[in-house]
Amino acid sequence: MTKVKINMDGDNAITLSNENNTTADVTGFDPSDLLAGALAKCTENEVRRFAAGKEYDLKKLEVRVDLDRDSEAKTANFKVHLDVEGNLSEAELRQLHKAARKSYINRLLSNNISLGGDVHHDGQVLNFE
């Protein structure tokens, strides 16, 4: 069995498991959906925080993220959609758009990303870049 546990703040955690150890039997969240979901939630938090600080009349906010992956080109494109309701001017809508682009996950995904890690087995550690 393969298990992936994502520890978060406090007592919150998400566990993803694959009982049969085969990629064909994976159920539950798709990892890219989790990444898109993180972007959506972080964007929502940033936009709500910004709107509250400016005392905008934001009645409703829904965030949707579309992810388009191209495995041949090795690219991934995220498109963030904000669905807002309230008495908001065009200038305020533009400011909400700017706030959405400043969310932590948006900035993280917009930077060059480096991946590395290690494998632990029988007291030995193998590092990889």
Description:
With 129 residues, this protein is an alpha+beta fold. It has a domain at 29-118: GMP Synthetase, Chain A, domain 3 (2-Layer Sandwich), CATH 3.30.300. Helix content is 33%, strand content 38%. The strands form three sheets. The protein has a two-stranded antiparallel sheet with strand order 1-2. Strands 3-4 form a two-stranded antiparallel ribbon. A hairpin with a 5-residue loop joins strand 1 and strand 2 (13-18). Helix 1 packs across helix 2. It starts with a strand and ends with a strand.
Summarize the structure in short.
With 129 residues, this protein is of the alpha+beta class. 33% of the residues lie in helices and 38% in strands.
The pLDDT mean sits at: 84
Range of strand content:
35-45%
CATH topology of the domain at 29-118: GMP Synthetase, Chain A, domain 3
- Span between termini: 26 Å
Strand-helix topology:
Blueprint: E1 2-7, E2 13-18, H1 31-53, E3 57-70, E4 75-87, H2 90-101, H3 104-110, E5 117-121, E6 124-128
Antiparallel strand pairs: 1-2, 3-4, 5-6
Helix pairs in contact: 1-2
Keywords:
129 residues; alpha+beta; GMP Synthetase, Chain A, domain 3; two-stranded antiparallel sheet; elongated
